[in-house]
Automatic annotation (TrEMBL):
GO terms for cellular component: membrane. The chain crosses the membrane at residues 36-58, 70-92, 104-124, 136-155, 167-185, 191-208, 336-357, 385-412, 424-444, 456-474. It is a multi-pass membrane protein. Keywords: Membrane, Sugar transport, Transmembrane, Transmembrane helix, Transport. This is Major facilitator superfamily (MFS) profile domain-containing protein. SUPFAM superfamilies: MFS general substrate transporter (SSF103473).
Length: 491
């Protein structure tokens, strides 16, 4: 009797699960990627949330400092707290994602983001403001890991690069929306607007399947088959792909559970070096410093207001990230990131030259007691062109970063680690990425005060090191299954 009841319960649960995992939009006769696209769209709502959190500080600095009477150091702490929270989120992201699944991790992270945005909205002092910023940071720390992993695990191999790039695309769209909306509404209203993508993610998760690879990993084979079929279409033969995934996971399930120290074994070292190295390269070119304090950077370059430059920054990111998504599965990962790093070098170098010329001309003006008439005609004309040159350099930098340096490291990170170490390794890599983001965002204002051209030349130098690192160590993963990538790295 107990056995029959148990079977009945299993039958009911399977029926409920099947109804939840049926495609929200029916697949076409010849097999459809509709469910893959819908699942990706829902997942990247988390990426949009990520972008709105990161972009929040850029258009709100002056207003928040005035309303809450914050010093520059206090606002720098507020701006960088999102990265501190994200570091802690990254430390736990792998374990959370492996324990409760990709969808469960996205739900938890969204809860932290909603709590954080509400705390910022109701803030009357720096303490509640910082607490809200920290909470949103913890949420996006988890999202920064789970979203690209989920997309990589559900996508067909020939679309994986392009779909994974939508993660970065929605991040920059979120940042751009924050920049644009933040220029017309106040900082409290902008915090309230941050709730919209969170709510979309929570609702959307009800209509998409769990990652088939995670279901297979935890031994839920029936649900694995249902999820894979809903993603590939009812009339598609999934037997070969399912067998390949199950064989791969069975091989690694026989291995003991990994710890952080296990990642330094020889069989995992190459993957770890690639993952950590790419994230270090991404942050060392200075994106979070330039992105967090865009308006102030343009004002320092000589513009009367940072708003125009901020809007231009926002408008540059989106089309070039879309271009990167298109090229991801055509040109390949390695060429794209090397071209991108060349562009960030050029942009930083041009902006650095502009700031250097401005400093030299200001020094000459100081010698003449700030009298511009003492400057030669060529020097006066050059002084007027310096802001345009600086803005051009920054925009070239943003365009170049968006096309490759932004999305490619996250795509490769989601591809290179074996399933048995993906949680631990992914957490470490994302943690180090956010540590780099905190270092860059917190030190940026101080470095610019020390030497604006020196700071930009430093970032240009790291761009050159990125090209060298990718050329020597990073493999091409375009057009390979996750299992084939592991075979390539291990060989």
């Amino acid at each position: 009797m107990a056995i029959e009841q148990h079977r009945d319960v299993e039958s009911v649960e399977a029926t409920k699960l099947q109804s939840l995992q049926e495609p929200f939009i029916p697949p076409e006769e010849n097999g459809s990627i509709t469910m893959v696209l819908l699942s990706t769209l829902v997942a990247v709502s988390g990426s949009f949330t990520f972008g709105t959190c990161v972009g929040y500080s850029a258009p709100t600095q002056a207003a928040i400092r005035e309303d809450l009477n914050l010093s520059l150091a206090e606002f720098s702490m507020f701006g960088s707290l999102v990265t501190i929270g994200a570091m802690l989120g990254a430390m736990t992201s792998g374990r959370i994602t492996d324990f409760i699944g990709r969808k469960g991790a996205m739900r938890i992270s969204t809860g932290f983001c909603i709590t954080g945005w509400l705390a910022v909205f109701f803030s009357t002092s720096s303490y509640s403001l910082d607490l809200g910023r920290f909470s949103t940071g913890y949420g996006i720390g988890i999202l920064s890991y789970v979203v690209p992993v989920y997309i990589a695990e559900i996508a067909p191999k020939d679309l994986r690069g392009g779909l994974a790039t939508t993660n970065q695309l929605l991040i920059v769209i979120g940042m751009s929306v924050s920049f644009l909306i933040g220029s017309v509404i106040n900082w409290r209203q902008l915090a309230l607007a941050g709730l919209v993508p969170c709510i979309c993610l929570v609702i959307g998760l009800c209509f998409i399947p769990e990652s088939p690879r995670w279901l297979a990993k935890v031994g839920r084979e029936k649900e694995f088959q249902l999820a894979l079929r809903s993603l590939r279409g009812r009339d598609v033969d999934i037997s070969h792909e399912a067998a390949e995934i199950l064989d791969y996971i069975e091989t690694f399930q026989s291995l003991p559970k990994t710890t952080l120290l296990d990642l330094f074994q020889s069989k995992y070292v190459r993957s770890l070096v690639i993952g950590v190295g790419l994230m270090a390269c991404q942050q060392s070119v200075g994106i979070n410093g330039i992105g967090f304090y865009t308006a102030e950077t343009f004002v320092a370059a000589g513009l009367s207001s940072g708003k125009a430059g901020t809007v231009a920054y926002a408008c540059m990111q989106v089309p070039f990230t879309i271009l990167g998504a298109i090229l991801m599965d055509r040109s390949g990962r390695r060429p794209l990131i090397m071209v991108s790093a060349s562009g960030t070098f050029l942009g930083c170098f041009i902006a650095g030259i502009a700031f250097y010329l401005k400093a030299r001309l200001q020094y000459k003006m100081h010698l003449y007691c700030h009298d511009k008439t003492k400057l030669s005609k060529d020097q006066s004309l050059l002084l007027e062109w310096v802001p345009i040159l600086a803005v051009t350099g920054v925009l070239i930098y943003i365009a170049a970063f968006s096309i490759g340096m932004g999305p490619v490291p996250w795509v490769i990170m989601s591809e290179i680690f074996p399933i048995n170490v993906k949680g631990t390794a992914g957490s470490l890599v994302v943690l180090l990425n956010w540590l780099g983001a905190w270092i860059v965002s917190y030190t940026f204002n101080f470095l610019m005060s020390w030497s604006s051209p020196g700071t930009l030349f430093l970032y240009a130098g790291f761009s050159l090191l990125t090209i060298l690192f990718v050329a020597k160590l990073v493999p091409e993963t375009k057009g390979k299954t996750l299992e084939e990538i592991q075979a390539c790295i291990s060989s």
